[in-house]
What we know:
By secondary structure, chain A is mostly helical.
Amino acid sequence: MPSSVQHKRIRKTPAARRAEIVDAAAAVALAEGLECVTLRRIGEELGVRPGLISHYFPSADDLVAEAFGSASSAELDSLLPAERAQGTPTLHLGWFFARAAGASYDNISRLWINARHLSRYRPVLRDRVAEQEAAWRERLTDLIRQGVDRNEFRTGDPYLTTIQILVVLDGLGAHANTDTSNRPAEVSRMAATTAERELGLPHGTLTRSDAPLTASPTG
Amino acid sequence: MPSSVQHKRIRKTPAARRAEIVDAAAAVALAEGLECVTLRRIGEELGVRPGLISHYFPSADDLVAEAFGSASSAELDSLLPAERAQGTPTLHLGWFFARAAGASYDNISRLWINARHLSRYRPVLRDRVAEQEAAWRERLTDLIRQGVDRNEFRTGDPYLTTIQILVVLDGLGAHANTDTSNRPAEVSRMAATTAERELGLPHGTLTRSDAPLTASPTG
DNA sequence: TTGCTTATTGGTCGCACACTCAATAGCATC
DNA sequence: GATGCTATTGAGTGTGCGACCAATAAGCAA
């Protein structure tokens, strides 16, 4: 029963192994933080020697950046799908805020704080953070533009509105590592409130309780 | 010329040495980040052996927390003085936003990101962050309450307004390690705009260009 | 089956970190 | 000027990290 330690080598294609490494790194980054994405830790996670991780990522910084990018873009796809099969922009925006205000979003908030801080020391990660920020901005802007086209939203500058919403969201997420428990409801609603104000929507439009808050807009 | 290395011991009182250590740690924390607050680094900063720092702070975590607390509370005193000798609440709030929106505030934003992230792993720091958050909230709430008393501001809930302002401020500060250069003016003004809206002030009241933006409110 | 490519291992090196503790020397006090 | 307290040193421990590299074996192709 040689199940505890792996002596038998398992040889995989570079593409498969690399994907496996990135997935593991993204999972560790989300659950424990980017500081825990080390050659040893990811190697252990996959039952593989640290040198192998080094082989696929000659610089550990690249792996950390890749872990963040992978986790972030996966979350973005889940939160704001690129192609929206069903539902109106208003509904999608409501779903977005419902999830972004929930406790399940805390891991993502933590990851963003983590990445924004670590950006200070790691240029590779800094570039990746900038790239992801652009991706989130673009995805949200697209949704707002579509809402404007359909006369659901009313704003003179969808891009500006997007940034304003994201600033509030960042501000709310900044405290993911501390309290957030005894936070007034008006504060938790701030992102949605901002969106409603800037998009000319009646107050409460984006936080209707009769909407299926937990359901995925595409599923 | 034994000027390069210090072989001569300089013996100070515990209180003086401790204060010296905390000051150096706070400076390093602000300039280079809390991760750089190490026994070696601070010892080198003071021309002293690392063991001495260990003597005053048996756990390095305590020093890191102290460094953050010291830097944060010093900045708070400078930004929102406890006793305001001159100027109205409106003027003080204007000064506050002027400084908080400037580039010189970036180091503070960086420090807060740093501390909020590191809180994830260090309970001692987490407590200190919570303490400082409370202090900032309290100081700003006091200012707003005073403005309400003098009929300069109009809000039903000074505490809630305070939190809303701080959330926006946190959101703006979150990007201190990345771009912030090509940020629309409306975004940079968001904190002041939020305050004006929530306090019933005419738009522009808190960002008047004729106010002495760089002067300290206490002299 | 044989051979070859290369994915994977195992071991090593240097570095930075916190922490411990006996030995030392500055300085106030007498 | 001698004495005692203790602030300060110096040396050492153990851990975890990234990086490097020769040796090995898995699995495909001939």
